[in-house]
Specification:
The protein is α/β, with parallel strands linked by helices and about 650 residues long. It has a 17-stranded mixed β-sheet, sandwiched between helices. A two-stranded antiparallel ribbon has the order 17-19. The chain is globular, with a radius of gyration of 26 Å.
């Protein structure tokens, strides 16, 4: 089997020991309410002021206003407030060195108010963090450490997660990936009693977290123990190379009835095929697109070629039926409760039963991979509509119905965020936490699958989300991996990648903000005259030589910085051994050689010579940047997991 499964877990670690009070720095505290005599925010402020640190206090309010010498209020959901605040504070030398974002320190509401709590949670959580990062990103880059504090958002053991808060992880992922100068991580705590010795100890740890250069984006404190996110590889439930399947508690029934939401997308199609091939299932494919009546299908196919989107769907249905499946197609918007309820009622009326649901919804649009700096509230609403609202609607209409399983197609973008927008990663983290919460509350097994990137037909809309491994999951591999997931027992979340059972790679650690008065050390450039260069490492990507002067210039910079020879135009900078420090210097040298300034994040968004050259050409000619309209490896077309054509 080419793929591997990993289970998310938490690994105990030592608390950070970074000294936060030996050098003076500018700290920004975003407290959820005006400071009072009690609470972790008041304790943090007191400790910082006692140590002589500069503290800027930010609290939510109806407008941007100065409430004290170093105390400001602003509207969390108003992007311009963050911009104006920076314009006021930066000339005073009050640009932040360290930020503690505590606006998500609100306890989760009761189960009956969960959906009602979603928008308020976004205003003080994901949305406020997005606007803060966007405003900071428009300033001159300077090292910054940012810690986002939440209360019992994550779940250890039998704890219940809070999906409404989990969306902040999308912004954390994007900040770490797109802003090399920002060290951003999420720290989840169980708040101690105000004034207790446990609170005093947690306060010291949080200040050290903000001062430390940590490679982990997810940290959890429970009691006196610190944990970081880890992934434990598990053995694949092997089957023979014949059609035999490994039985499991979620294994599809022969002739079972399964609702596939987003049934014509890449994942939905693959999952439907697996159910048809292995169980001759009775399938209901739900899509927002309308289909003509069956009696008109032959006429449509006669008038349109096979590349027509509707023709492909007709042919897909017939291919499933050729495998022994019985297929019904229903048009519905999953985010609309009434339409979703009607789809389930039609399924029960037609087949008399419903045994499982596969959730693969999500439309393709440019906001899927839009950089954090360009993400708009409209982009966020579009990405949340089907993935967030759709899950709330699905839970409601399925409540009380006996099912064998409800499987959600999530993405490894929830873990590493690479190539995906902050909003997409936020939606995937919501999905993972939602499945875990449902698995704890419902007798129906809910499973969230963090899929790696999938391959798709060349005619489908390309995407910028690359696979975590060296290549995307093929349709054949995906079908086998899908049946493997259904063979697992007692799993609410699993990560799947085609490169073998190993922990998903995490991004390189961001730089540690320099202490006040400490000169910044620039990465040393490699001098090719000093030492012999090594040969190009063995990569799965075939070597292709530079084709023009721009690509040649970039390749030579990489060879000089990495100390190797033979850099090809499709080679990945980070697979060649590069890291964020070397990348910063690479972008500086590229700017010096070409005279074209590009932000350092360009290297992370497109880590090949070819893509970087395209960015340079577009910038020099004043043209729209289309360098990321296709995947990094041109021989494979990749789209994010769970997307519908």
């Amino acid at each position: 089997m080419p793929g591997g499964f990993s289970l998310p877990s938490w690994r105990p670690t030592l608390a950070p020991s970074a000294a936060w009070d030996t050098h003076r720095a500018c700290w920004w505290l975003l407290l959820p309410e005006p400071p009072g005599p009690e609470g972790i925010g008041a304790r943090l402020k007191q400790r910082l002021e006692e140590a002589g640190q500069r503290v800027i206090l930010l609290t939510p309010g109806p407008r941007l206003a100065q409430l004290g010498e170093h105390h400001w209020s602003l509207q969390p959901a108003e992007a311009t407030d963050y911009e104006l605040l920076l314009r006021l504070l930066l000339p005073q030398g009050l640009a932040p060195d360290r930020v503690l974002h505590l606006w998500s320190l609100l306890p989760p509401r009761s189960s009956g108010e969960l959906e009602a709590a979603f928008e308020p949670a976004q205003e003080g959580g994901f949305q406020s963090l997005l606007f803060l990062l966007q405003a900071l990103g428009r300033q001159e880059p300077r090292p910054l450490s940012l810690v986002v504090l939440t209360h019992r958002m994550q779940a250890l053991g039998e704890e219940t997660p809070c999906p409404e808060r989990a969306t902040v992880l999308g912004a954390v992922r994007a900040a770490s990936r797109e802003f090399p100068h920002v060290a951003c991580r999420s720290v989840d705590v169980n708040l101690p009693a105000p004034g207790s010795w446990q609170e005093a100890r947690l306060t010291a740890w949080l200040l050290s977290e903000c001062a430390a250069a940590s490679s982990s984006e997810d940290v959890v404190y429970r009691g006196l123990q610190r944990h970081v996110r880890a992934f434990a590889p598990i053995g694949f439930p092997t089957a023979t190379r014949s059609s035999a399947r490994v039985p499991g508690p979620l294994s599809p029934r022969e002739r079972g009835v399964y609702l596939v939401l987003g049934g014509f997308g890449t994942l939905g199609s693959s999952h439907a095929e697996a159910l048809a091939r292995h169980a001759r299932a009775r399938l209901v494919l739900v899509s927002r697109s309308l289909m003509p009546e069956r009696l008109h299908w032959d006429d449509w196919l006669a008038a349109h070629d096979a590349s027509d989107p509707l023709s492909r769907r007709i042919l897909q249905v017939r291919a499933l039926e050729a495998l022994g499946a019985e297929v019904r197609v229903i048009s519905a918007d999953v985010g609309d409760r009434d339409q979703l309820r009607t789809a389930i009622e039609e399924t029960l009326a037609h087949f008399g039963a419903l045994h499982g649901v596969v959730f693969c919804v999500g439309s393709m649009n440019p906001s899927l991979s839009r950089p954090l700096a360009d993400l708009t509230p409209d982009d966020v609403r579009v990405l949340f509509q089907s993935r967030v609202r759709g899950l709330y609607a699905l839970e409601e209409v399925l409540r009380g119905r006996p099912l064998d399983f409800c499987l959600l197609a999530s993405s490894l973008a929830a873990v590493h965020g690479r190539g995906a927008s902050a909003a997409y990663a936020a939606a995937m983290n919501f999905m993972d936490a939602f499945a875990l919460r449902q698995a704890q509350r419902s007798p129906v097994p809910w499973v969230s699958v963090d899929w790696d990137g999938w391959a798709h037909d060349a005619d489908a809309l390309p995407s910028t989300v690359p696979p975590l491994g060296s290549r995307p999951i093929t349709a054949a591999e995906g079908a086998e991996l899908f049946t493997g997931v259904l063979s697992l027992d007692g799993v609410a979340r699993v990560a799947v990648t085609p490169r073998g059972p190993s922990a998903p790679a995490m991004p390189q650690p961001p730089p540690r903000p320099p202490e006040h008065g400490t000169p910044r050390a620039e990465p040393a450039a490699s001098d090719p005259s000093v030492a012999r260069k090594a040969s190009r490492p063995a990569l799965e990507t075939a070597y292709v030589a530079p084709r023009d002067a721009v690509e040649e210039s970039i390749a030579k910079v990489w060879e000089s910085m990495l100390g190797i020879t033979g850099v090809g135009i499709y080679d990945n900078f980070f697979e060649l051994g590069g890291d964020w420090r070397t990348g910063m210097t690479v972008m500086t040298q590229v700017r010096e050689k070409t005279g074209i300034p590009l932000p350092p994040v360009c290297l992370q968004e497109g880590p090949t010579v070819e893509l970087l050259a395209q960015r340079l050409r577009a910038a020099s000619e004043g043209l729209p940047d289309t360098s990321f309209d296709r995947p990094v490896v041109p021989s494979s077309a990749v789209k994010p997991s769970g997307e519908e054509n």
